[in-house]
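Need residues for this backbone.
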């Protein structure tokens, strides 16, 4: 395994373990998701550079666009839950309640 592959897989796994174990606040969960998306974007960008193919050079931009949409939707949910519940603690949120 090359050092770049090890770095990207480690960054992705750190984001995944942060998402799995540190679920106290909604903001920390969103940051872990963004770290995972950033590591996937960098890995996909370097993969297309290694292949020197023009057909797959647009896929990192699609991933970046979807990541930006996911971040804006997550921040909108963060603002909405903070306004309605008064906090962003995930333990205080009950999804079955209207």
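Answer:
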């Amino acid at each position: 395994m090359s050092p770049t592959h090890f770095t990207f897989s480690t960054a992705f796994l750190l984001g995944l373990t942060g998402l799995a174990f540190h679920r106290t606040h909604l903001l920390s969960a969103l940051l872990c998701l963004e770290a995972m998306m950033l590591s996937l974007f960098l890995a996909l960008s370097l993969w297309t550079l290694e292949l020197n193919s023009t057909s797959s050079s647009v896929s990192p931009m699609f991933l970046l666009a979807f990541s930006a949409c996911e971040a804006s939707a997550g921040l909108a949910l963060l603002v909405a839950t903070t306004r309605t519940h008064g906090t962003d603690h995930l333990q205080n949120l009950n999804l079955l309640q209207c």
